[in-house]
Amino acid sequence: MEQFVDLGRWMDQYGALLTERQYSIMSQYAYENCSLFEIAEREGISRQGVRDIIVRAKHQLEQYESKLHYADRLEQVRRIMEQTRQMVSKADMQDCDRLSVLRSLDKIEGIWEEDDGI
Q: Long-range contact list for 58-67, CB < 8 A, 24+ apart?
């Protein structure tokens, strides 16, 4: 299961770097949970052809993440922001200050989401 979570995160971040064919097949595999047989029927190629494309594309995505660590860093930032939101909601501060901090967190999150994916 964790393998598919990582694959989905990597696709979100680096999928645009794959060829159109690789992206199409990987999207069906990672996002739609299609079997090799289903993808092969849709794409008009053999199951082995689908498997080969998936193996190569996975390897490429793993290489991007091992060099850039962008997906891991983005996940860390999201966790820290969520923890910060929780702390702010519990903090003893005036409502206007709390609202100001939460708006700032929303802006930061918006910047990250604009840059989501290469």
A: 58/7, 58/26, 60/14, 60/17, 60/18, 60/22, 61/7, 61/10, 61/11, 61/14, 61/15, 61/18, 61/26, 62/10, 64/10, 64/13, 64/14, 64/17, 65/10, 65/13, 65/14
